[in-house]
Structure prediction request, 205 residues.
Amino acid sequence: MATITVRGRGTASAQPDEVTVGLTVEALRPSAAEAFAEATRLAEAVVALCDELGISPGARSTSRVSLAEHGEHTSDGWQHRGFRATSRLAVRLDDGERASKLVSAAAAQEARIDGPAWRVAYDNTGHAEARRRAARDARAKAEEYAEALGGRLGALVSVAEPGSGPSTPQPRTYAVHQDISGMPLEAGEHELVAEIDVTFQLEQG
Prediction:
């Protein structure tokens, strides 16, 4: 029995359900102990800021801590310049207004900010709509092929999801060293993509 295999594709738009912001603090000091102690103080200040904004501990996680010798290359070769310590806190929020306040307040503390990284939850209804459209697209394509080949679609043989989705650009990182007013964060609508591979029997017309 001849078969027809097609790939259907469907898209839908949805508002993000979550946003992640990365906050990095760093300290450069003559000794490793001094650098680490200062980075710890700055990290504690960022944690206190999250507490003030009512961000639960479960929504934030330390994603990186580092301590390394710092130096620079000069005409006389590499020169030791002390030690650099850093700490990065990743904060997840489902409230864009609160994320905006967090970014502005953290910038005022001269934390480096990366993000925002928006996420559409897996159970968002936009995903279901994209899948329905992918299935309809697959059947429509298969019917067109069958008709062009002088036949008609038969029974459904197999269905497989190859895995798809929009690519997420990597956020850039900025260090801000000035007075900061409120920074608006606009989520916009994100395109959701679903794909499906479907095989039908091809019956002779």
Confidence is low (pLDDT under 50) at residues 164-181. The first strand starts at residue 3 and ends at 14.
